[in-house]
Amino acid sequence: LGEIPSGWECLPLVDRSAYLSRGISPAYCEEGGILVLNQKCIRDSRVSFEKARRHDRARKSVSGREVMRLDALVNSTGVGTLGRVAMMPQCSEEAVVDSHVTIVRGSNDHESFFISSTLLNRQTEIESLGEGSTGQTELSRVALGSLPIIFPSSELISAYFDYTNTNQGKIESNDQ
């Protein structure tokens, strides 16, 4: 990754992630329940809620597995979709992802935003981390977690967030 400025560090993604986990195996229902985002919802570096389905909470708890605004959502299975990344926008209701998507979250909004932004710029590299046979390619949490990321100081991450978060809010408003 080359030389980095003093005070910055190159670490595996997992070392700065507060949460790095695949989604649930949903028990689908037609009405009610909680929104489930799947691979079809992650396109063109954005989250679309149009192809989302619903999960019956009564059949399987999702407590603690909900996605949060600014989480990185990474498609983790299949040729052609593996490696696609999107930053979770503000959502009007609670949502989870299915088992084909990995959630990566920082320890606070600033770090989540930085991680999502970084992963959005490394989709091709993330896709190359997939393993398995043709058509059955998988991206493991371990492989994604081992991806080296250059992290600036917490102060710079916060400054980056403060500078760009207004634009992120405008993007989310326009998408809605």
Draw up the topology in text:
Elements: E1 9-12, H1 13-16, E2 19-22, E3 28-29, E4 34-37, E5 42-43, E6 46-47, E7 53-55, E8 72-75, E9 85-87, E10 95-97, E11 101-105, H2 109-120, H3 123-127, H4 141-145, E12 148-151, H5 154-175
Parallel strand pairs: 4-10
Antiparallel strand pairs: 1-12, 2-11, 3-7, 4-7, 5-6, 8-9, 8-11
Helix pairs in contact: 2-5
Features:
single chain, four-stranded antiparallel sheet, four-stranded mixed sheet, 23% strand
Written description of the protein model:
The chain has 176 residues and is α+β, with helices and mostly antiparallel strands. The protein is built from five helices and twelve strands. The chain has helices at residues 13-16, 109-120, 123-127, 141-145, 154-175, and strands at 9-12, 19-22, 28-29, 34-37, 42-43, 46-47, 53-55, 72-75, 85-87, 95-97, 101-105, 148-151. The strands form four sheets. Strands 2-11-8-9 form a four-stranded antiparallel sheet. Strands 3-7-4-10 form a four-stranded mixed sheet, with no helix packed on it. Strands 1-12 form a two-stranded antiparallel sheet. α2 (109-120) crosses α5. The mean pLDDT is 93.
Whole-angstrom Rg: 16 Å
Largest sheet: 4 strands, antiparallel
Strand arrangement within the widest β-sheet reads 2-11-8-9
Q: Kindly state the percentage of residues in helix.
A: 25-40%
What gross morphology would you assign? Answer: globular
Q: Average pLDDT, to the nearest integer? A: 93
**Strand runs, count:** 12
Instruction: Give the uncertain stretches in residue-range form.
Output: none
Order of helices and strands: EHEEEEEEEEEEHHHEH
Distance from first to last alpha carbon: 37 Å
Number of discrete helical segments:
5
